[in-house]
Design a protein that fits this description.
Blueprint: E1 2-17, E2 20-26, E3 36-41, E4 45-50, E5 53-55, E6 58-64, H1 68-74, E7 81-88, E8 100-105, H2 109-125, E9 130-136, E10 152-155, E11 162-163, H3 166-176, E12 181-185, H4 188-201, E13 204-208, E14 224-225, E15 228-229, H5 230-233, E16 236-238, H6 239-243, E17 251-253, E18 259-261
Parallel strand pairs: 8-9, 8-12, 9-10, 10-11, 12-13
Antiparallel strand pairs: 1-2, 1-7, 2-6, 3-4, 3-7, 5-6, 13-16, 14-15, 17-18
Helix pairs in contact: 3-4
């Protein structure tokens, strides 16, 4: 693990959608799908991002432009430098690799991308299959379409795939087939519904929570969810752990520390 930021140069930029860019850099990192790194822009701020691409020493982070930090990141060019520290947190467990379903909502798909790569390797070595569901508000927000060509898509406005949500699509699929395990990342209310679906059908499930992470190593408590520090106890939690977390899907903590009903 890198405790102090290591300065890296951006060596490639890929536009995944009108609002999402992937920034590539070279760094040797012992990373497991579901973990995250802290990305530092000198003289500005530091924010957490998952690694969405990894191949030997080439890594990529996919960034949705939505605030001051991400706007600044989107303005970066090849050759510009960033600080990276980590990886942090607990990633996905891959004990039930076969006949799995991966459910990504919005930019949550970035946290699942390296997991899909790992699952696909397992499928190539053994019999099994991986079903990928991705949902967004509209077709322009779908990412990784060339990377994962067999995704089942859904959009709220019906401009790509079926009209509806990831939960609607997962529910339909569960009427026709059974998965050994479901992995998910996206808005927390979506995750709550996915977990409830899996719980009702006795399906193993792991989700990656997206809470406000400030320090990355469990000191500030900003990412608390019912006593669990998402940055070190998660961000990946299983169905049984989530069932004991009363705040999950109901209450979040803002960056000012205020607890609000989700």
């Amino acid at each position: 693990m890198i405790e102090q930021p290591t300065m890296v140069k951006i060596c490639g930029i890929l536009e995944e959608s009108p609002g999402v860019k992937t920034f590539f850099f070279k760094l040797n990192l012992n990373f497991e799908p579901g973990q995250f790194v802290m990305v530092w822009i000198p003289l500005l701020d530091e924010k957490p991002f998952t690694v969405s691409y990894i191949q030997d020493d080439l890594l990529g982070i996919s960034v949705l432009k939505k605030g001051g930090f991400t706007n600044a990141l989107h303005s970066k060019k090849i050759g510009d430098t960033l600080g990276i520290r980590g990886p942090y947190g607990r990633g996905f467990s891959l004990k039930s690799d076969f006949n799995s379903c991966v459910v990504g909502g919005g930019i949550g798909m970035a946290s699942l991308a390296t997991l899909v790569d790992r699952l696909n390797l397992a499928v190539e070595e053994h019999l099994g299959n991986v079903t990928i569901i991705q949902g967004a508000r509209t077709a322009a927000e779908i990412v990784y379409q060339n990377r994962f060509r067999d995704m089942k898509l859904c959009t709220e406005d019906g401009t790509a795939g079926i009209k509806g949500t990831t939960v609607d699509l997962l529910r339909d699929l569960l009427e026709k087939q059974r998965f050994r395990k479901v992995y998910a990342c996206g808005p927390e209310r979506m995750l709550y519904k996915v977990v409830e679906l899996c719980k009702g059908r006795g399906i193993e499930c792991e989700v990656s929570l997206e809470r406000y992470i400030k320090c990355g190593f469990g000191v500030c408590g900003q990412c608390d969810c019912s006593g669990q520090r998402v940055c070190i106890d998660g961000p990946v939690f299983n169905r049984e752990e989530l069932s004991r977390m009363e705040d999950f899907g109901k209450i979040i903590i803002t960056k000012t520390g205020e607890r609000i009903i989700h």
